[in-house]
Amino acid sequence: MKSPLFSGIQPTGTIHIGNYCGAIRNWVRLLDTYDGIFCIVDYHALTVAHDVSTTRQRVVDAARVNIAAGLDPEKCVLFVQSRVPEHTELAWILNTVTPMGDLSRMTQFKEKSKQHEDNINAGLFSYPVLQAADILLYKAGAVPVGEDQIQHIELTREVARKFNARFGEVFPEPAHLVPKEGARILGLDGKAKMSKSLGNYVGLLESPEETWKKLAPAVTDENRKRRSDPGNPEICNLYSLHRNFSDDETIATVDRECRVAGIGCVDCKKMLHRSLSATLEPIRERASALEATPGKVEEILDHGAKQAKARAERTMEEVRRAIGVR
Ligand code: SF4
Predict the structure, then answer these.
(1) Which residues contact 306 (CB under 8 A, 6 or more apart)?
(2) For residue 70, which of 30, 10, 12, 39 has the smallest C-alpha distance?
(3) Which of 54, 257, 272, 289 is a Cys-bridge partner for 263, taking CB atoms 3.0 to 4.6 Å apart?
């Protein structure tokens, strides 16, 4: 039997190529080895200000884009967190074994507290406990994460140990899986990690024209001032995008020709644009087909919630007996 693998998905339809390389593409590969459980974490999203009127649609859009990008609902469980109330039930119980000191040391809490000074709520503080509940509810053996989330998975292991020590062995300790390739895709400014809020991204569903509009002014090796100057692909963000999207022959050509000024940056960007289009076109087509079939995504999410709930109920029966309320 495959070991369960859990991952949370933020409820946003604006998913960019950095998310694709750093997360979705790796999840799809991991489905050969693991029993994938993917949860759109709409309750997590409440910890910061959000637009109530668009929440439901953002959840559906997030599901649609992830399915289109390769998360096949026939091969994994895909559902929405708020549809399985056992997540919040377990989070409460885990709160009682989680040290306040550990939560106050979480880097993400410190950063988000600075970003949202007017709304430092208890949910923001105990967010990692709900995250631990998400993972432990399915007894996940593995959690694919970016480097910025490793601390939260370490806390999840600590919480599992504390629960098991106090109430008896219920939870396995999950391992974190950090992808080797694509873990940190820089934005088109070449400076910060690609992100929606910084506006330095290429969206997964953007048209070839929109993609080119963004690629054309993208920052390359800044030492290469003229077409005749040789460049250094090792320090050029466009080359790292080639390594994620282009075939081996194109990557080798760029590596060689950039160094001897055999190609200019505009040629190089055109090659990257072709590679990106080859990956993104089928994703856009699948997303459009899903959009053209009303109710299809909701149907997939309903089915996923039933599958997730059946598993969550089994764990909660064990937890309730362990803590003595049954
Ligand atoms: S040719 Fe390509 S790899 Fe070299 S500096 Fe220009 S964009 Fe970067």
Answers:
(1) none
(2) 30
(3) 257
Q: Does the beta carbon of 202 lie inside 6 Å of ligand 1?
A: no
Average pLDDT score over residue span 58-68: 96
208-288 matches 3-184+294-323 in CATH topology:
no
Q: Is 110 a catalytic residue?
A: no
Model pTM above 0.90: yes
Ligand 1 atom having least distance to the Cα of 221: 5
Q: pLDDT digit string (tens) for 1-49? A: 899 999 999 998 689 999 999 999 999 999 999 999 999 999 999 988 8
Question: Hey, what CATH topology would domain 3-184+294-323 get?
Answer: Rossmann fold (3.40.50)
220 Cα: distance to centroid of ligand 1 (angstroms)? 6
Which position among 2, 75, 112, 180 bears the catalytic label? 112
* Domain 208-288 is found in CATH 1.10.240.10: yes
The answer to whether the CB of 218 is under 6 A from ligand 1 is no
Give residue 263 CA to ligand 1 midpoint distance, Å.
8
Nearest Cα to Cα of residue 219 among 239, 238, 199: 238
**214 included as an active-site residue:** no
Residues 133 and 87 sit within 8 Å (Cβ to Cβ) = yes
112 is catalytic: yes
